[in-house]
Design goal:
7 helices; 500 residues; globular; mainly beta; disordered N terminus; Nuclear Transport Factor 2, Chain: A; 42% strand; 3 domains; Neuraminidase
């Protein structure tokens, strides 16, 4: 089949899916998230056209009704080495169009993306004819009506990032993406909570809380989403065993879910000659008078109980792990299939699932999100330090604790200023909001030589990279690979990153 016939077919596909002339007000009525996801799907599809080995990935983006073989044949006849986006906008209330020129030859192409069953897919394309040219793009980086910079080239690989793939979530329960460690191959997978790649890098485990609490796995190409168990309150942090046969997750059950108010009648106790008994965890303690009597008022903070369960993926059998009642944020041991590390009430512990025994790793309740190094010798954590988050490592036995991240003194001096505020009718000078950067959610590279983490040191949350001693801290994707994707770390022990 020649190129003209292929063009004719895809134009028919475009008509079938209702492509219409651009309505001026449509771009303003679309949800910003949908715009970002539609654009990302179109961009990722365009990248697959440049590389014949990505033909299966290309098919992942296409609707079943779009003939992938004809598209592949067209580009085999006229290979492209790069593309530039020349325009992007909504062409209907459900279809987003990205226009580009393919190089060499400055050949025009238009890609149409639509949302199907919650996933953005390519519903039609206008293929370039051999020798056909498109008008040159005006300017460099000029914003179009849809907020897309034009022209935009193919994302280049980043050197020295290491190997493997990184899965990340934008926020708790947000979108889940997969990207190669070198910054290529970005693609949206699904949405959910605390994603983690399987040991062989082929699947992702995650949970959702809507419409019910449920544990899932999905292939890294977005296919074969499978539910495993449900109903366990606030299920999160699913983690694979080292052999990939089991998943462990945390869930909430019992305890004090809300802050509780208590009061003691001091006048009555005095008449009886008794002393008030105040719990050690009491906060906001004060004395109030009412009806001629004195009362001591205090609050008990919320104290939800968390436990760990494990499911065998071959048998679907569930077991309870013998851990304390504040077991949270588990991560599987990378080499020992029967061990999992987790945050407890008073620090971090390593649990042997077979024996039910805990081995204390740290005794500081401010330690969070432990992840064991690929060789099993070290642990990296997020640490709550003086009102902000920092990253530390230690040996698996808790020794040799080392701090890796720190806000420079010059930045602290520059941002630590006194501001005036009125307190009880008087002006006072107090320090402004905490000037420290936050650094959180670290994970090891597959070879154990680097650590990826989240930081807000530039004013927004970004994925950064550093050596395991804290040196050479830098943005992991500094060439715009994640443009248009916003990240947010809420500090609830969420797993933002997984690297295999």
């Amino acid at each position: 089949m020649n190129i003209k016939k292929i063009l004719y077919l895809v134009l028919i596909i475009s008509v079938v899916f209702g492509l219409r002339a651009t309505a001026p007000a449509l771009a303003q009525t679309q949800d910003n998230l949908d715009t970002t996801l539609a654009r990302a799907a179109a961009n990722s599809f365009l990248i697959t056209l440049l590389r014949p080995e990505l033909v299966n990935t290309m098919k992942f983006y296409l609707l079943d009704s779009v003939n992938a073989d004809e598209i592949t044949a067209a580009f085999q006849a006229n290979p492209a080495t790069s593309f530039e986006v020349t325009g992007a906008d909504w062409v209907s209330d459900v279809t987003y169009q990205v226009k580009a020129t393919m190089q060499p030859g400055n050949r025009p192409i238009a890609v149409y993306a639509g949302k199907y069953n919650g996933r953005w897919r390519i519903e039609g394309i206008d293929l370039p004819l051999a020798g056909e040219t498109a008008p040159a793009a005006t300017g460099s980086g000029e914003a179009t009506a849809a907020g897309v910079a034009a022209p935009v080239g193919v994302v280049a690989a980043v050197a020295d990032n290491g190997s493997g793939q990184l899965v990340f979530q934008t926020q708790n329960g947000g979108d889940i993406y997969l990207i190669n460690a070198d910054g290529t191959g970005l693609r949206w997978i699904t949405s959910g909570i605390d994603p983690q790649l399987s040991p062989d890098g082929t699947r992702i485990a995650f949970t959702r809380w809507e419409p019910r609490y449920e544990l899932f796995t999905i292939n890294i190409d977005g296919s074969n989403e499978q539910a495993w168990t449900h109903g366990w309150r606030q299920m999160k942090s699913p983690t694979w065993s080292a052999d990939g046969s089991k998943l462990t997750f945390s869930y909430q059950q019992g305890g004090r879910l809300e802050k509780e108010r208590h009061e003691i009648n001091l006048t009555l106790l005095a008449m009886r000659g008794q002393e008030p008994k105040i719990p050690a965890e009491a906060v906001d303690i004060k004395i109030v008078e009412r009806n001629g009597m004195q009362f001591l008022v205090y609050y008990l903070p919320a104290d939800a109980h968390w436990f760990l369960k494990q499911i065998d993926l071959a048998t679907s059998q569930l077991i309870d792990l013998s851990t304390e009642r504040h077991s949270y944020g588990p991560t599987g041991h990378p080499t020992e299939a029967n061990q999992v590390i987790y945050k407890g009430k008073n620090g971090i512990a390593l649990n042997n699932i077979d024996t039910g025994q805990d081995q204390p790793v740290s005794t500081d309740h401010r330690d969070h999100t432990p992840v064991i190094s690929p060789d099993g010798s070290k642990v990296v954590i997020t640490y709550w330090q003086d009102g902000h988050w920092e990253i530390y490592t230690m040996n698996i036995d808790g020794s040799n604790r080392q701090r890796l991240t720190e806000t420079p003194l010059t930045v602290l001096a520059e941002n630590t200023r006194l501001v005036s505020e009125e307190v009880y009718g008087k002006m006072r000078f107090v320090p402004q909001e905490n000037p420290h950067f936050n650094n959180a959610a670290p994970v090891w590279s597959p070879d154990g030589t680097k650590i990826a983490f989240l930081t807000n040191r530039t004013g927004q949350w970004e994925i950064w990279l550093m050596n395991t001693d804290g040196s050479d801290q830098r943005p992991m994707f500094a060439s715009g690979q994640l443009d248009g994707i916003s990240l947010n770390y809420a500090g609830t022990d969420e797993r933002m990153l997984s690297w295999r």
